[in-house]
Every structure is written in structure tokens, then in C-alpha cells.
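Entry for iron/sulfur cluster complex. Fields follow.
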Amino acid sequence: MSNKPKIAFFDFTSCEGCQLTVIDALQTHLGLLDLVEIVQFREAMTEKGEDYQIAFVEGSCTRKSDEDRLRQIRNQADVVVALGACAHLGGINSMKNRWTIENVQTYVYGQNGKEAYESYPARPISAVVQVDAVIPGCPIDRFEFLRIVQQMLQGRKPKLPDYPLCVECKLAENACLNTLGKPCLGPITRAGCDAICPTYGDGCEGCRGWHPEANFEHMREILRGHGLSEEDIDARFTMFNHYQMEHMGEDSPLKPEAVLSRNEALPSSDFAAPQEAD
Ligand code: SF4
Ligand code: SF4
Ligand code: SF4
């Protein structure tokens, strides 16, 4: 019998891009398979072992029934790792939290939507269960995944960079996009992706979450300088991080309008959602 730690991968509401990144990482770092035994990974294998010590959870919690499944995973695993922005932050799924659930259901699925699909505001998995480690990003960075797995196998607590993305961007010798007329959230975003988006000419959207000293008012000033309205700025702040910003209480840098949009009616889709089979 193998003495290797048993690991399992689970997906909740997500695009499964982070699991794909894991598969990609395993193809180039096959040595990892000498150190662990994968017992469950729906995207890569059919076996479904329920005996595991480390659980990687991708995706947000977006319905009540997700909570039971998450608690089952937590009860079984010694270590639970949030894999990617959906699990870590709520991610892009939490954009829907700007509107009422009924609004979103009919916008996407038409009038049947309310009955057809169970849904509630998107939450990171840490809102339901204790999380021991986080691998941020949308999608995750494969090298960070490998580094964090290695640290966990050595019994070390994985540590994330606690400084802004701009540090990595400067080290890459990029010209700053914010000075070139392109909005970039690098000053408030946690580093760790080697500033991949600015390096390829796109502004950072904050998919790794905020660093601990993020100065949102200064960021807002920079974004106003690009001609963005307060609503546009709130939309950028909440693309991946709506859940966090809503739960910052009085410290939330969101303007009241961002919360008020909850009451705005969205148009109903023409799509007639099929009823879910019992
Ligand atoms: S974090 Fe991004 S890539 Fe990963 S599952 Fe969520 S949407 Fe997909
Ligand atoms: S491009 Fe973005 S990440 Fe790079 S230095 Fe400018 S603000 Fe920071
Ligand atoms: S540059 Fe920003 S948006 Fe792009 S991967 Fe890094 S943290 Fe995410």
C-alpha cells in the first residue's frame, strides 16, 4: 500500500480553468506524481476515492446545497486548499451579487430561471468552511501551484506575497500602463503572477485579490484620471472582489451606487430554461 499523501480535487461553480492548469502543470512536472497519490480528480480520471488528506477545491459556493458538500470535504481532509479566484474570493461569480438573485436568474435563464436553478449570492469557500491555504488567480499560476504543493508536502505553511503587483511589474521593466492611458489595478493587487497581464499590455483586473496595504482612494484617483466614472470604478473593483468589498463594512471603498444597483431590474432573457430533472 502506498504511503504517499492522498490528494483530491473538487469543483464547485467555476469554469474549471484552474483544474486545467493543474493538469497542464502535471504534464511538465510529472515528478509530483511520485510524491502524491491523486484519488479523485473528475476532470482527469474516473476513479472517485473518498480517502484523502489534502483537498483542492475549485469554484465558488453559489447555492445552499454546496454547503453540505463543502462540509463533507472539510470533515474528511486534513488540509483544504482554495484553488483559484472563484474559491478564494468568490471571483467573477460574485459579480452577480450586484443584483438580486431573481434578477440574475431571469436575465440568464428567462422566466423559468427562478424555478429551474437553485442559486444564491456567490461566496468564497472560506465563508462556509475553514481554509488552510489559498492558491490565488484566475486561473492559478502553475508555478505557484507547484511551489505551494511542495511547501505543504514539506509541512511548511505556504506564504503568499504581501506586496503590490507593481513590484513585479517594475522588476519586469514594463512601462507603467497607468501612465500610458490604460487603467491597471496593479497598485492595490497582491503580487505573485509576475505581472503577466501588464507584461502583455493589459491592465491588471485584480484576480489575485488585494494586498494588505491597498490604498483604494489613491487607486480611485488614478482611475478617475482615465476618465472613468465612479460606477465604472466600482465595476472594476468588484470584477473579482465583490464579496470582499461588500464585507469590508464601513471601510468598503465602494460608492453607495454599487450597492444600489441591486435594485435595478435587468431584462429577462428569451431563453427558456429547461427544468432540472429530479
Ligand atoms: S478562478 Fe478563473 S480560471 Fe479558475 S475556475 Fe474560476 S473562472 Fe475558471
Ligand atoms: S502597469 Fe500596472 S502593475 Fe505595472 S507598474 Fe503600472 S500600475 Fe503597476
Ligand atoms: S496581472 Fe492582475 S489580473 Fe492579471 S493575472 Fe496577475 S493579478 Fe490577475
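NOTE: The mean pLDDT is 91.
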